[in-house]
Amino acid sequence: MWFDSWSDIIRVLLATLASYAAIIVILRVSGKRSLSKLNAFDFVVTIALGSILASVILTKSVSLSEGIAAFFGLAFLQLIVTWLSNKSQTFAKAIRSEPKLLLCDGEFQEEALANERVTRGEVEAAIRKKGHGVVEEIAAVVLESDGELSVICDGKAADCTALRSVLKPGETSL
């Protein structure tokens, strides 16, 4: 339980070194997007990379070459999915969730809160984290596609160009 053999320790150290080097090279080639959290798909890829890395390092039945192949496979899939989502709006909508306006000009958007399963308390916590204390003075709070809450503190929602993707033209509230 505490110690099996020095050969096992050496195998783990060598597998760690080799797989670490391989994943660094693959991530440098595939770009920053591979470890981003822009959407749920990116998050899943990041978790899967970590799981593969752990399996290669600690599981005798998974060879280093199999792990590297899995790293390359995930990086390639990430590349294909991002390429397709840039080329096709339909594909992009299927892969990415849309940002959702949860608070507009100090008013909670109850339907959006319910649909996204976000509480008023969570929105208020995001506002506090931005250093504000009066909900009614906040222009907007948006649930982004990566799950983060963005807080826009100044102006009216209709005047905020950053809200174009969540407000329809001429709309000041949902």
From TrEMBL:
Subcellular location: Cell membrane
Stretches that traverse the bilayer: 12-29, 41-62, 68-86
Protein name, UniProt field: DUF421 domain-containing protein
Domain YetF C-terminal: 87-156
Membrane topology reported for the UniProt record: Multi-pass membrane protein
Domain YetF-like N-terminal transmembrane: start-end pairs: 18-83
Keywords: Cell membrane, Membrane, Transmembrane, Transmembrane helix
Gene3D superfamilies reported for this sequence: bsu07140 like domains
Family as reported in the entry's similarity comment: Belongs to the UPF0702 family.
PANTHER family: UPF0702 TRANSMEMBRANE PROTEIN YCAP (PTHR34582)
GO cellular component: a single term: plasma membrane
